[in-house]
Amino acid sequence: MATIHASAIIDPKAQLADNVVIGPYAVIGPHVSLGSGCSIGSHSVIEGHTTLGQDNRIGHFAAIGGEPQDMKYRGEPTQLIIGDRNTIREFTTIHTGTAQDQGITRIGNDNWIMAYVHIAHDCQIGNHTIFSSNAQIAGHVEVGDWAILGGMSGVHQFVRIGAHAMLGGASALVQDIPPFVMAAGDKAGPHGINVEGLKRRGYLPEAIMELRNAYKVLYKDGLSFEDAKVAIDAMVKKQTDAKTQEALVQFHQFLAASSRGIIR
Questions:
Q1: With contact defined as beta carbons under 8 Å apart, do 64 and 43 qualify?
Q2: Distance of alpha carbon 48 from the chain centroid
Q3: Does pLDDT of 1 surpass 90?
């Protein structure tokens, strides 16, 4: 049975699972769908064409599913789709997509999004990410699985952050961070492989060593970006261990797909 505070304003067209919890003065719009086990904190607003999966926890005063902050937006019925088991804390803002992109902002599963975070239109967020308080990402940003964004960091539009990457607090990111790489600075630069994070996630020493070698090729050997990609591709082809090769492939494919360029 749903637990809905008497002061909450729920549009009759909203779709609510039987066991959601909605706090005082929360507002739920007509095109919102809340899955089983979702909890909405007091004074939060869930609006737009927004779908939440199961067991999501929304803190107080969050604004979820608002119109994109894009001057080209003309009221198109774009979407926000949020997966399962996400924690989204107080005063966070997450906007729907735009017709100039896929029209969907997506957030995966098991993400930990702290207070005052902003996730703009058309962003694509993976699984198991951490957004520390006041992390701000502009439109069309992609964040891979297990990535971590430090507090008060800012990310330029269209930037990609690779899986297992880590962006330090108060950093400004204007180009892509490859998977597994740590970055920091007022203009974020590379600071090695996220070794501790990879150990926690079960990466074997051999795979970590090869990723460190790939990092060295990219950042330490004085090669051009194009030559570094060729050298890392050769590392992929020489590798015989399947798991290590998979990590190197992920690293190389990210570099090959970069359009804004990577941090250097």
A1: no
A2: 20
A3: no
- Per-residue pLDDT band for 78 (boundaries 50, 70, 90) equals very high
Strands of 24-72, DSSP E: 27-28, 32-34, 39-40, 45-46, 49-52, 57-58, 63-66
**Pair of tokens at residue 233:** 């591709």
Six-digit token string for 68: 């994109």
Average pLDDT over residues 128-141: 98
Decide which of 193, 220, 235 is a domain's last residue. 193
Domain assignment present for 189:
yes
How many domains does the chain fold into? Answer: 2
Pair (226, 186) in one structural domain: no
Q: What's the average model confidence in pLDDT over 92-116?
A: 98
Mean pLDDT of the chain: 98
Is the per-residue pLDDT at 166 higher than 90? yes
Task: Please report whether residue 262 resides in a domain.
Answer: no
Of 178, 193, 208, the one marking the end of a domain is 193
| Domain interval for residue 244 | 198-257
| pTM: predicted TM-score of the whole model, two decimal places | 0.98
Residues labelled catalytic: 121-122, 139
Tokens of 34: 């809340």
